[in-house]
């Protein structure tokens, strides 16, 4: 069996009171739970070490929540809060660029400003961003503590359990349980998020985007547990919702098609896997950012190799390597090299 590579991008931030109670009541126990050793930047699917490889990458938010909107300001308010807001914007930009030390320094400055202004929403937003920076760095215990603090502040401030911020943080807590291999807690969390978002997904644009993310993350969780058919069902839902909101020719749709290709392959449907990957490449060729396109080429190369079409396998693996080098994308180069190794083994 080959290793197909799952390149994931997606979400950040938003829980219910009963789920929160589990975290508050068990916080000491949970925060002392060791992170599973093989869950790192690259997570090998350990149930069958040669069956797949997937990157658990820092997730980017689909939700277009502006700083002003999050803090409850309107555009005219930006001037009087300019120092706080500009510091937060710089922190958000640093996080986007994966400059995490700089982001954290800026957030501490922003937190002091918010505290001096007695701006409770600003303080909450700083904690939320700090939690996401910790999550991006896989500092799971730190991220969990901060997310719980944000939840406590939101719920005590009167925000309802079905607010997108609350659902989004619940999703992050479920993901932390997933990464710790705490399957029962993760399953409860993911299903609670799906239940809550189901009430809003056809009404609000941001809710439908978050619905896509929840479905995608839950599909990843199910695939990690070996529930391939169930995973495929949820991944298809994620793709449909993503196509409706971001468009069929978006980077997010390309990445989900890559994941659908992998999951179809895991389900034994190699023709559907090939179709999904070819469609993903067609979309990727039109994108300005082609940094993840090499991964898809390498995955398709492995599909062709499994079908015994060696020349096509070599073609796509070579293109994957060149794309990876051109765009300085290590995961593309790594998967291309793996593809070359498998071709060599197949020829020997």
TrEMBL record:
SMART domains: TPR. The keyword Lipid metabolism does not apply. It holds the Pfam family TPR_12. It comes from the Eukaryota. SUPFAM superfamilies: TPR-like (SSF48452). One of its GO terms (cellular component) is mitochondrial inner membrane. InterPro entries: TPR-like_helical_dom_sf, TPR_rpt, TTC19. The keyword Transcription does not apply. Gene3D superfamilies: Tetratricopeptide repeat domain. One of its GO terms (biological process) is mitochondrial respiratory chain complex III assembly. It is found in: Mitochondrion. Keywords: Mitochondrion, Repeat, TPR repeat, Transit peptide. Belongs to the TTC19 family. This is Tetratricopeptide repeat protein 19 homolog, mitochondrial. It comes from Ignelater luminosus (Cucubano). The lineage of its organism: Eukaryota, Metazoa, Ecdysozoa, Arthropoda, Hexapoda.
